[in-house]
Each structure stands twice: as C-alpha cells, then as structure tokens.
Design brief:
Layout lengths: L6 H35 L15 E11 L3 E4 L5 E3 L2 E11 L4 E7 L2 E7 L4 E17 L6 E19 L3 E6 L2 E16 L2 E20 L2 E8 L3 E10 L1
Antiparallel strand pairs: 1-4, 1-13, 2-12, 3-6, 4-5, 5-7, 6-7, 7-8, 8-10, 9-11, 10-11, 11-12, 11-13
Amino acid sequence: MNLTRGQGTVSKWWERFRQKRLCLGAVLSACAALAAGSGAALAQDAKPSGDDWAHSFLVRGRIAGIFPEDSASYNVPVSTHVSDQFIPELDLSYFFTNNIAAETICCITKHEVSLSGGPALGDAWLIPLSVMAQYHFHVGGGVKPYIGAGPALVLVTANSRKGPATSFNLETYNPGFVLQAGVDVKLKDNWYLNADIKKFFVDIDAQVTTAAGAVTGKASIDPIVAGIGIGYRF
C-alpha cells in the first residue's frame, strides 16, 4: 500500500515492480508464443468466423499470480505491504453468440499485511467475485483473443492479527470493477490453452490497532491477476 516513499521505500518499490514486470512479461510472452506457434499448425482445423460457439460453455482451470498494487490512505503516515500469492483459479464462460460471452470466476486467496520493512500485522482471506462481459475475436488458426470488463466484489472472509496488532479488521463486502484480456488457443477437439490477465479496482476499509494507537483508512489493493491454464468447451 506504500503511502510514503522515502529513499529506502523507493528502492523497495522498484525491486517489487521489477519482479511483477518479469512475471507479467512471461504471461504476455506466453500469449504471443501461443498465438504465433499454434496458428500455422492449426490452420487446417480452423473453422470460419461464425463457428458454433453460440450457446456453448467454456470452463478453464489456471494457475494464477495475485499481485496487489499497494496504495492506501491512512490517518497516520505509515506504509504497509500486501503479499503476492499464487493460487488455482477456476472460471466459467457462457457464449450468447459466436463473439459475445459472460464469464465468472471462483478462487480464494490468502494475503499477509505487514508494515513496510517491519513486522506482519495480520492475514486476510479474500474471495474475488466478478461477472465480465466479453468480446471474443476469431482470428483463424484456432486462436481466439478476447477482452472483458464488469463489476467485481471482494469478500474478506477472515481476519487474523499478528505481531504488534491488538486488532486487525477489514471490511467484509468491497465492490469495484475489473478489466480483462486473454487468448484461447485450440489444442485438440474442444481443448484449449489459455493465458489471461485481469486488473481489479477495489478499495477496502481497514482498521488496525497497536499499542501505539489506531490506524484507519482505505486500502486500494487493486490486484493484477495473471494466469495460464487449460480450458474445455462443451
């Protein structure tokens, strides 16, 4: 959440940004490699735009990285850090037409909140819920890029305090919205390889009490969720 950035905080922020950039770059490179490497090999299997995707379902399983953006506004000048996490992710899409679909996701993730360069304050279990309207492009060769957007709701299901915190509380229901981009590449029959990136915009009201007093404010976690997995259409 990094409110104040002194000289030491800037260097820590840059190192954290560099690590995220490498991970996200790997996912984007995978998208490009999948599209380029699979297009020619699958050209004979490709059907023209207007394939029978209408009224079908696509279920995907991914390994996803959750990368909070760490910005916040508190009543005192402190900086906090929210840990990254890797989790299994499941989603389901329904195609109303060959190009237009709706997707919902299911996952749960645990994050540690700590003072920047200091002790942990607590753990939080988060469930991000969203329904995204999507547009899928038929580019041929079994390759289908897509973009999406929609409302989001992050549920905080449990809080547990640590270290110097005498209380650690996050708001349970936290509305926001999400943007998405990805690509599905046909492997064989109805199986697809998928790479996907989502950006959540969600603020969470937070309150932490320590021996030094209470810290209250709004944490803009705004995580990037990047994953690679397998999908099946039926």
